[in-house]
Amino acid sequence: MTAFIFPDLGPYAVEVLSAYAGTLALLLILVAGSVWQGRKTRIRLEEFEARRTAKRQKSTENL
Amino acid sequence: MSLSGAVLPWVTALAVAMVVGGLIWGFFFTPNDFRQGATVKIIYIHVPAAIMGSGTWFMMLAASLVWVIRRHHVSALAAKAAAPVGMVFTLIGLFTGAVWGQPMWGTWWEWDPRLTAFLILFLFYLGYMALWAAVENPDTAADLTAVLCLVGTVFAVISRYAILFWNQGLHQGASLSMDAEENVADVFAYPLWICIIGFGLLFICLVLLRTRTEIRARRLSALIAQERMA
Do B18 and B194 touch, CB atoms closer than 8 A? Predict the structure, then answer.
């Protein structure tokens, strides 16, 4: 089995690693924010629609 | 909504596979450049992010034109949904460009036509998002942002094509072109292409997700308004 070798970045290790770390952090924030916002909106809409349906059913029963 | 819901998981899986695969290939399994050393590895994030940064604006332009001509609400919402994605890609392009430029050019920043146009494009993204947030009526917001998008297209074009007609500045020519003499070596080009396709798929996946959110948010606000009026 060959051992895993981390590439030799020489004198530019800080630049290369910070570029990758910054990019991954920004992408992570974007993806997590989009998913969180999407989930929050979906739940709010579903709750509202459920409440609305229940309200309508109740008013139909009262008739 | 049903079509985008069915497509989304597949696009997401493909985007993750290509971005992760391309970055691992580029970072771990490509050699250092004889002149730029290990900084060449920044190409796998800088180039795809910069392409998507200006590409997103063109997508927003197309969606805005559909809104202006056909008054199709989903196109306006798609443009709105794409803006934060394009803004982040542009920011990544600027950040990685500065980090790459420092050791290669000896400066983090240069008022080069391409770099300056890209910075202005980033500011246009911020302005576009701020305008959407500031105007209460969604149709008016869509109209105003469509005009802003049209104006900002000038800088999207310059940031992408400045090197072809503006013969000055530090930024080098195209990394990938039809001219074989200008191209990067194949050993760098293959993982780079995978990263570009991966970033493109990531863009599609995020825009689909965010557009679905915008449609739901619009429906929710319409229902709330309807209930208040009843």
Answer: yes
